[in-house]
Amino acid sequence: MSEPQPIYLSDYRPPAYRVTHAELSFDLDPAATRVKARLHVERHPEHVAGEPLELDGEQLTLKSIAIDGQPLGEDEYALTERGLRVDNVPDRFLLDTEVEIAPKDNTALEGLYQSGGMFCTQCEAEGFRRITFYPDRPDVMATFSTTVVGRRDREPVLLSNGNPVERGELPDGRHFVTWEDPHPKPCYLFALVAGDLQKVEDRFTTASGREVTLQIWVEEENLGKTDHAMASLKRAMRWDEETYGREYDLDLFMIVAVNDFNMGAMENKGLNIFNSAAVLTHPHTATDAAFQRVEGIVAHEYFHNWSGNRVTCRDWFQLSLKEGFTVFRDQSFSADTNSAPVKRIEEVSFFRTAQFAEDAGPTAHPVRPDHYIEIGNFYTLTIYEKGAEIVRMLRNLVGWEAFRRGSDLYFSRFDGQAVTIEDFVACMAEASGQDLDQFMRWYSQAGTPEIDAHGEYDYANGVYRLVLRQRTPATPGQPDKQPLHIPIRLGLVGTKSGRDLTLTLDGESLGRDGVIHLREEEQEFVFTDVEEAPVPSLARGFSAPIKLHFPYSREDLAFLQTHDSDGFNRWDAGQRLALLALDDLIAAHRNGVEKVMDSRVVEAFRALLNTASDDKAVLAEMLTLPSEAYIAEQQPLVDVDAIHAARTFVKQSLAVALRDDFQRVYAENLSDAAYAPEPEQIGARSLKNVALSYLVSIEDEEGVELARRQFEADHNMTDVRQALTLLVHSSRDELADPALRAFGEKWAHDPLVMDQWFSIQVSRPQADALDRVKFLMDHPAFSLTNPNKVRALIGAFAQNRINFHRLDGEGYKLLADVVIELNRLNPEIAARLVTPLTRWQRFDEARQELMRGELERIRAEKLSPNVYEVIEKALA
């Protein structure tokens, strides 16, 4: 393969020709699907007459081509490396093409492919070019008419975007359905599904009184796993009406569950295609986390109907325009539906572990990158999660009312258009009257800003001075950084009263919980009339995606954990306190000295366990230690063994010191009530299972017996999975092995449950984890062509830090072998899977050499653009 070349934002030009209407016809066949396309084409007014027509196309066999009904000779067009070129075309014309494609051979799962016996599509970002020749870019928006022809015995269900307008029978047992989508859309939102499916149907009445038919299409055996997704969809539709004033705009909304899918789900207009893991739930097969994940993803894809479909992005550099905004919307929905503090803790815990690592690694990029080689590599946490944090900051800056006015303006002004991030932010500036020019740097500047904070209380004058200094470390291609506009939400907690004090800044009252604005490299904020010495509670609710450094003492952190009125910052204080203790123990392990547990951490946990809590899910989060991955992100050099040893020591020390309290909490939260994925029940299960994890960590007979009984009770998958995980991760193989066998035999028919079975085994801390991976790769339930299986087995093992980072390098070798094979089968999944190896510079010299060696071995292969781009950045 030739070396892939980058595409630059600065080179953007509108297309020479645009399509106003597309008429498509599919004659389905696994090995030879025929696709006829009639495109209504016109020259773009910004281009001069006479420019050639260039259409994207990959892996297409051209059968015929005509312009305005006249077939073209072979000398009148050219098939290029990129697609199709026609030099002489009029300003307005009809282009007819017929191509042949082979869906059954499409292991990349882009374009039209088969999942089992089902035909389905995935066209974002550039999959449509694998279906027919077309200007495959988001700023070409057309209405679509699609006729799907299939065998009635093999494909009784034929679906596409929009509304069905005609159906009928054809010779030889075939039939057809024609669909019309009245809303102009880019081709990345095109969808087609055909197969033997059953539907669950419901109705939704919009705020204006219009009735919408809702359908979820699944394979017959999954009909009993759709209730939660349907209820989530209806809640999301009502929430979007009440919160953003957005109604659904078609008469039909469909979701289809697909087993083979690279992503979680896809928001195709009117026909959302979902990874089955993102839509199917049942108490016996799905955990609480899965129920909540399904609710969030269903909402996310539905919300895209406006933030992504009705208003879409001009080019792929603007990807966060739709994804960041929509993630913020689905996070807000989930917070309103569930425990808001817990949702925020979960979001930030994941963000600070994974996105901060991305920002600090070789593939760091701005939320709006200025160039890319393969756009599939930019479906990242930076685009999605950091993009959402930027939108959250905007909301905090302008206030909710102005934010709502800005979103209304955005949707009305740009309905049916493909636009830019500047257009979105300009609407917020116009609606709020604020200058957001400096704020735009968040979109163009990579890296995680760090804020060094220092505070001093003047007892004599009742003044608290807070000094903030911001800096953003250099990232690839961006050595120098400019100051950002950073909103910091804060409170001052009185050390005597334990309550929030009134904030008075520059003579203006901010109440007891206010926002200050850091715009310069260094600023001082002077709060007056501060009646007692405070401990500052900074960046409440994680008000900006930053790393905050403040010289809190351990006593300060214990105080905030008890008294801070902000639930997120109470949790964060506990995490910081635990991290300080872990730092001491990591150093002790490295130096070979005795480990001593910090009694302040023990007492802080004792207080938590003995204080009544209104939200048990929050308490469960506060009792959960920082993960090994997050601890590693706080270290200048990752010492895998020391981190594992230190965290294990802390957990076991807490379990020994607080054993009676953990047993009591476990017993208090046992319940025989019928399962419901409701906040109160989820909180109780979370707290009970955190307590059980501590008890089993010391492997005393009583704790292990509780886990065994919980597994055998088989009350719900949340409890069963937790108990099985604890048994398998213990050294009690005489209990773990029979439980694993029983679980595997019981659920051998259910692919999603078997994914859990894979992950539990390969994430165990024992040294046999790698051997289990190799053994399970030959298991009948595993397939390298199914992304869910790859993530459940290989991806889960790569997160098993103590075993993936073995000193013999065998964990790295296994991952590299899989990446090389997947590079040929599914480059998108291969490029994502290789990420753990790209962080090689964070580790000791021996591991660096081993990881770099595997990256070099991958680079020696003939690489897809996806994998090539990641490997080159990692080795640069």
Can you give keywords for this protein?
single chain, 876 residues, alpha+beta, 5-stranded mixed β-sheet, 28 helices
Quick recap:
This protein is α+β, with helices and mostly antiparallel strands and 876 residues long.
Report what the structure shows.
By secondary structure, this protein is α+β, with helices and mostly antiparallel strands. Helices cover 41% and strands 22% of the residues. Helix 27 runs antiparallel to helix 28 (865-875).
Average pLDDT taken over every residue? 97
List the uncertain runs. Answer: none
Radius of gyration: 28 Å
What proportion strand?
Answer: 15-25%
Query: Level of helix content?
Result: 40-55%
Q: CA-to-CA gap between the ends? A: 20 Å
Outline: globular
Q: Strand count, sense and closure of the main sheet? A: 8 strands, mixed
Tell how many strands the DSSP assignment holds.
Answer: 33
How many H/I helices? 28
Structural class: alpha+beta
What strand order characterises the main sheet? 6-5-9-3-2-12-15-14
